[in-house]
Structure formats: C-alpha cells, structure tokens
Amino acid sequence: MGSRRRSQSYKTPLLEEDNSLQENTVQYTGDGSLCFRGHPASKNYTGKWNACSLTIVCSFCSYLGFSSITKNLVSYLTKVLHETNVVAARNVSTWHGTCNLAPLVGAFIADSYLGKYWTALIFCTIFIIGMMMLVLSAALPMIFKGPHVWADWTDTVSSHYIMFFVGLYMVAIGYGGQNPCVISFGADQFDDTDEEERTQKSSFFNWHYFTQNAASLIAGTIIVWVQDHEGWLWGFTISAVFLVLGVGAFLLGTTVYRFQKPGGSPVARVCQVIVAATRNFSKDLPCDCSLLYEIPGQGSAIEGSRKLKHTTGLEFFDKAAIVTSSDVESVALLNEWRWRICTVSQVEEIKILIRMLPIWATMVLFNTVLEQMFSTFVEQGMVMDKHVGAFEIPPASFQSVDVIAVLVLVPVYEKILVPVFRKVTGMATGITPLQRIGIGLSLSMLSMVSAALVECNRLQIAEAEGLVHRNVAVPMSILWQAPQYFLIGAGEVFSKIGLNEFFYGESPDAMRSLCLAFSLANISAGSYLSSFIISLVPVFTARGGSPGWIPDNLNEGHMDRFFWMMSGLCFLNLLAFVFCAMRYTSKKAP
Question: 263, 305, 318, 361: most buried by Cβ count inside 10 Å?
C-alpha cells in the first residue's frame, strides 16, 4: 500500500486521491513503459507517431547504406580488389551469413541486459565506424600511388584490403545488430492496452516496410550508378552521410520515446521452466489452474513484462508452476527457487515460442520463392527478348518491379483495403496477422504459376523457331515476366509485414526483439532451402542423357517443370499453414 500511495502521489500530486486513478488511466500508458528519466510514460507527450517516425527515418537511412553495399558488393570485389569470381562469391556468402547472425546477437543483448534503445545506439555506432572505414579504404588508392603494405603482414595483403574487410564486417555486425532493436523499439511507441494505439501499431509495420523498399530502390539505382560512374569513394561517402543523419534523427527523439525495461536472459528463463517441469514430472497438475504459482499483485516476476494468463495445452510445462508446501519453504530459503518453481507467466513464455514455431516454419518456403527473383527469374529473363523499343532491359533490373509493387501496394493496403476489411470483419486492423500471412502465401503460389506459364510459352516459341539446341534468346518479350515479379511484391506486402506484426504481437513482452530477429532469420532459412532444392534438381532430372530441368541451355531444359513443382510445394505449404493457423492459441494478457 505504501508503494501504491507513493506512485499515486508522484503521478497526480495536485489532485484529490479519489480522482488519482482516473487521472492515471488518462495520462499514463498501461503497458508499463517509462520515459527517458525512468518515470511512467505519459500518453500525451511520449510515443505514438511523433516518436516512431524517427525510428522509421533511422531504418530508412540504415537500410539505404546497407543496401548500397549488398547490391554492388560482387562488383567491388572483382573490379577493385581483383578477386576471382569464386573467391568473391565465397566472401559475399560469408558476409551475408554474418549479416543474418548479428540480429540474434543484438536482440539477445537488448532483451536481456541493455534495452533496445542503448543496444541500437551501440550497434549503430559500430555501423558508422564500419562505413567510415569503407570510405577510407576507397580513398587509400587516391592517397597513395602504389599498394602500401603493413610491415607486420605478408606482401600479398595491402592496407586497402584489410581496411575494407574490417569495415565490411563492422557494417554487417552493426546493421544486423541494430535492425531488430530499432523495429521493435519503434513498435514499442504504441500502447498495447489502448485500442487506438494498437491499430496504429499495425500501420507502423506497413510504413516501416514501405520505407525499407524505398531505400532499396534508391540504393539500387542512384547510389549504384554513383559507385559505377563517379567512383566508390563518392558512393560510400553518400551512404555514410545518410547513415549519420539517420542515427542523428534517432537521437532527436530520445526525450519523447517510451522505454521498456530489459527482462533478463530469455534463455535462462526457458531453461528454468524445462528444469522445473522435469523435476515435477511425476507430480499431478491441479484441476484448478489458479492453483499454479504466480506472484500476487499486478506486476510480473519478469522485469519489463506484463503477466500472462494460463492457456490450455502443452501441459508438461505447466508442471513447472506446481506449488507444494516444501516448495513454499524452498522459495523462502533458497536463491535457486526459480529453478524449482516458475510463474505461470514464465511458463506461458515457452508455450508461446513453441506455438509460433510452426507458423515460422511455413514462412520459410515463401522466402524460398522470394529467392527465385535473384536466380531462376533472372536466368529466365536472360533467354527472352530484352528490348523494349530502343531500350534494353537488363534481366536483373526487373527486380525493381517487385520493389515498385511494394511501394504502390502498401498505401493501397493501408488506405483502401484495411477500411474494406474493417467493414467486413469489424476488426480495427481489418484482418488478423495470420490471415494476412495466408493471403501472401497464396500470392506467392500464383507467382510460381505465372512463371511456369511464361516458361511453357517460351519453350513453345523456342521449338517453333528451331532454337531448342541453340543457347540464344527467344523472341518473347521480357515484359511477360512482370506479373510474376508483381505477385511476389504483393505477397511481401501481406506475408512479410504480417509475419513481423505477428511475431511482435504474439511474443512475450520481454522477448520482442529476439522474436523479431527470429522472424528475420526466416530469410536465411529460405535462402538455404532454395539452394538445397536447386542443387537436388539436376541430381534427379539430369539422367540418361537428359539435360535436366535447368541446364546451361535453358531452351533444351524444362524450367517450367521446376516452377510447377514450386507451385505444388507452395500449395502444400499453404495447407500446412492453414492447419497450423486454425489450431494456434493466441497469448492471453490481462
């Protein structure tokens, strides 16, 4: 009671006590967020769009700098550092692996110890230092006429080479580490307990993905052009300037941000539940779930997290919250009680993670389809007529159709489709994140169907023109590829944004950055699955003198069958997703 009176006197010192609860409800957030000074966050003066817009600016600038490197990295390695194609491909793959691992590290530090704000700043600083080193590495050939070697290194390693790769990996660690923290921190600016702000949070994920695609389009056109025509020094400098401006914008919002306290190591909490449940394996669960252990009062035993209500299913883990008289004594006497008894909220955390895993798994194939834009779609475009009037369209540049589709459809979804869905469903967000993911998976399947139909028609033209045994382009316009790229872009608007919204909304409060990083790791899993499937295709199709589905001369192959196979896999994956989504149990917060 004393702590409650102190809290009320701080929040409403000039009001009568009987009006304090009403004033507290109106002025302060209900999700436990704090202002920069550590006081309860005001609903009127902190958070919402004024705060989260600055995190979107930071994400835009960060992704612009990062994307300007990824889109032209192979060109730099081969043309400037004079690496062979094999060595360059290996270095790019290793670097991408680091980029995909860093989000898990950054998210773990944010949720466990430092919080999202400070973790994002630390990794942004690493990102900036890495970009500065890239700028300096590009300037070295201009400063020195010949290669200068550090005395402690062998003659084959120049200071230019070392500085570039150190900077490159600092960029990977910096960007990857800050990415899930900034996204999650931006979403934290909306109060989950307020219906209006919860609806605005759904819009945040839409516009965040919109700005990332806008940054990708600018990086892939303007900055890449600057790198190729004005020099890498100018290209890296422009990216570095944008990055500094983005981090500066992020710092500007410090006084208006809402902060969530880090909840300690999520790995430790998960292990505690498993250990406690295993110890109580022989005990019977009480018939009344209210008899399971939970601390009294409104607060949670997990710092920076709200209590979670008990849900049915996965009863084995409920045994971690069984309380006996001897356990009560252990709780009072031993510091290790958390390894003997866990709260219901802690048990629900591991239940949520297990339940989200099948949804995550069904999204892997979507990213496998997405990978086709950078491989089989490009190969298909290379053997089509690339001329549109006097212009020649590079096959890889058709990926911009996907980006344009996202830039067009995000506003359409936000301003047109959501109001239409809202009238039908009565939900403030229009449709649920799971429904949104399902629509995106359907569109990805249609993209594969479109690619298969285009390839069938292309092979028919090749046979009619007598070009089957000639590795040349077929007289069929590359513009026929536009629908398959557009459908993938439409699928991203639904599935990828929906997945981020789902993982943030369903994840435990103290694990949101980590769950978002896990969501981003889906991209890596899709890439690996794509490589695995494509590597198996020649093993099973190139037999008995047959060139297989995807030979060097695509006019002799049957890449249409590959696309039909992917369509079938997408259909089966959609059925699996529907099954998992219908059985999914949402978390229950008070």
Answer: 305
Residues 289, 310 contacting (CB under 8 angstroms): yes
Instruction: Please write the tens of the pLDDT for every residue from 366-398.
Output: 988 988 887 788 888 888 888 888 788 888 777
Q: Count the neighbouring beta carbons within 10 Å of the beta carbon of residue 276.
A: 24
Contact 47, 41 (CB under 8 A): yes
DSSP-assigned states of every residue in 90-157: HHHHHHHHHHHHHHHHHHHHIIIII-HHHHHHHHHHHHHHHHHHHHHHHHHHHH-SS----TTS-TT-
How do residues 554-587 score in pLDDT, each as one tens digit?
Answer: 888 888 999 999 999 999 999 999 999 999 988 8
d(CA 71, CA 47) in angstroms, rounded, equals 34
Query: Which class for 249: exposed (0-12), middle (13-18), buried (19 or more C-beta within 10 A)?
Result: middle
Q: What pLDDT shows up at residue 251?
A: 94
Distance CA 373, CA 484 (A): 9
φ/ψ (deg, to 5) at 544: 60, 40
Compute the 3-state secondary structure of the chain and give helix, strand, coil in percent, each to the nearest 5. Answer: 70, 5, 25
Across the chain, mean pLDDT equals: 83
pLDDT reading at 517 higher than 80: yes
Q: What are the beta bridge partners of residue 388?
A: 391
**Cα dihedral 39→40→46→49 (10° resolution):** 140
Phi-psi bin for 473: left (phi > 0), alpha (psi -120 to 50), beta?
beta
Query: How is residue 284 annotated by DSSP?
Result: P
Give the three-class secondary structure for 192: coil
CA pair distance 513, 180, nearest whole angstrom: 6
pLDDT at 11: 38
pLDDT in tens, 464-487: 888 888 888 888 888 999 999 999
Collapsed DSSP state (helix, strand, coil) of residue 311: coil
CB 36 within 8 A of CB 252: no
